[in-house]
Specification:
This protein is an all-alpha fold. The protein is built from 18 helices and 2 strands. The protein has one domain: Up-down Bundle (Growth Hormone, Chain: A), CATH 1.20.1250.20.
């Protein structure tokens, strides 16, 4: 057994491609470069996860017509996936915490790939819901394990940036994975979005299996809510993640219908706007990664929630104003970028605080944070569905803005935790 530069056990050179092993042996690739490459491979797992989670949202209208159901009903595919992930991820991550990381990641990615390929063949909403439930279960094998591995491979002073890199894989899905999936749906019909997501997951599984070294696990960690949630700052951190994603997904879960009503966009147009979400998200992750390793995060967190509220409200207000399409586009372009940046700025900050709060429970805490991400998505989709059914499309942005303001109040109420260094 060998130990790398950050004292984490990894396999020998025989697990790497032969040419890479030679470079490592002769010092052509430094220890820092090896860690950076490994974390980039882990980001690919996040890319596959982000793609499959959101790839179909630009084609809700077409899916509703094909399945003979309402748009609100199809929107609940996001809800069941999110709530399944939220409930199961801590238990799944705890159960596999004692297993070798690379193997778990490959199994999870293969499962997600196969399930998305199966979804492309289904003809009923019930069948798609069942597949989304199974995909939700599989996320516990990918998201928290990839983030945990990044933290384990990095020195303490760089863990925030390492985890941000993995999360950047999810945000990159908005720039490339989801828009290209929307384009596949435009060319091949909505089933093409699931085919695309399935292929991405299987390719990611292959690359992770070939390029990531074996990462030996820590001890198996059982999810004990009283112990884990009782650590200082854990509950408030998780609440911020839940609130932030719930606010955004009041709008994001219905992005296709909203953009159709506001701008007349469909398929490729929606994909282009999703790419802007990705650009903003990457900017937010980069900024958040820098703040994550600093002492105070109170100001950026409060500002991000207020910015989210302002940007989300535009998606409701503009539907009530008689503006020309050009003016709406000029307002929605920056709103989409800034709103995404505000949301994803918070992720690295919260993750760094969680890892510092209870290091022994790292996999479970990161899984819990992932659960809050998916629970927020599901809650936002559910709140949006209720608002859509009762009040129509304008309610989506206004409800999202109200939830974001609730997040700002939560930051203000827990200011003492965020003003001090991560401990």
């Amino acid at each position: 057994m060998k130990v790398d530069s950050v004292n984490h056990p990894v396999s020998g050179d025989t697990d790497a491609p032969r040419c890479r092993a030679i470079l490592i042996r002769f010092g052509a690739i430094s220890a820092a470069q090896r860690v950076s490459t490994r974390i980039s491979v882990l980001a690919l797992a996040g890319f596959a996860l982000g793609t499959e989670a959101f790839v179909f949202v630009g084609h809700l209208d077409a899916m509703a017509v094909a399945l003979d159901v309402s748009v609100a009903a199809v929107g609940q595919l996001a809800t069941v996936f999110a709530f399944t992930s939220a409930i199961s991820a801590p238990f799944v991550a705890g159960a596999v915490a004692g297993m070798e990381r690379r193997r778990v990641l490959v199994v999870g990615l293969v499962a997600i790939g196969a399930l998305n390929l199966a979804a492309a063949m289904l003809t009923t909403l019930g069948g798609l819901i069942a597949v989304r439930v199974l995909c939700g279960l599989a996320t516990g094998l990918v998201g928290p394990i990839a983030t945990t591995a990044a933290a384990e491979l990095s020195p303490p002073e760089a863990r925030g940036r390492a985890m941000a890199t993995v999360f950047a894989g999810v945000t990159l899905a908005f720039v490339l994975g989801v828009p290209l999936g929307s384009l596949a749906g435009e060319v091949f019909g909505w089933r093409g979005t699931f085919l695309w997501a399935g292929m991405i997951a299987l390719i990611a599984a292959l690359i992770v299996g070939l390029l990531l070294p074996r990462i030996m696990p820590g001890p198996r960690v059982t999810f004990r809510p009283g112990i884990v949630l009782g650590a200082p700052g854990v509950a408030s951190s998780l609440a911020l993640t839940l609130t932030g994603f719930a606010a955004t997904f009041c709008v994001t879960a219905y992005f296709g219908p909203l953009l159709g009503a506001l701008l007349g966009f469909s398929g490729a147009g929606v994909g282009a706007m999703q790419a802007l979400v990705g650009i903003g998200a990457i900017a937010g992750v980069v900024l958040g990664g820098r703040w994550a390793d600093r002492s105070s995060a109170w100001g950026p967190l409060l500002t991000s929630f207020l910015l989210s509220a302002a940007m989300l409200s535009l998606f409701g207000v503009l539907l009530l104003l008689p503006l020309p399409q050009g003016a709406m586009l000029a307002l929605l372009l920056p709103a989409t970028i800034l709103g995404a940046a505000a949301l994803f700025l918070r992720a690295p900050v919260v993750q760094a605080r969680l890892v510092a709060a209870a290091p022994a429970h790292r996999p479970v805490l990161l899984a819990l944070n992932g659960s809050m991400v998916f629970a927020g998505q599901g809650l936002g989709a559910a709140l949006g569905g209720v608002g859509l059914s009762l009040f129509g499309l304008p309610a989506l942005g206004l409800i999202g803005a109200a939830v974001a303001l609730l997040g700002a109040l939560l930051v203000a109420a827990t200011a003492q935790h965020w003003k001090g260094p991560a401990q």
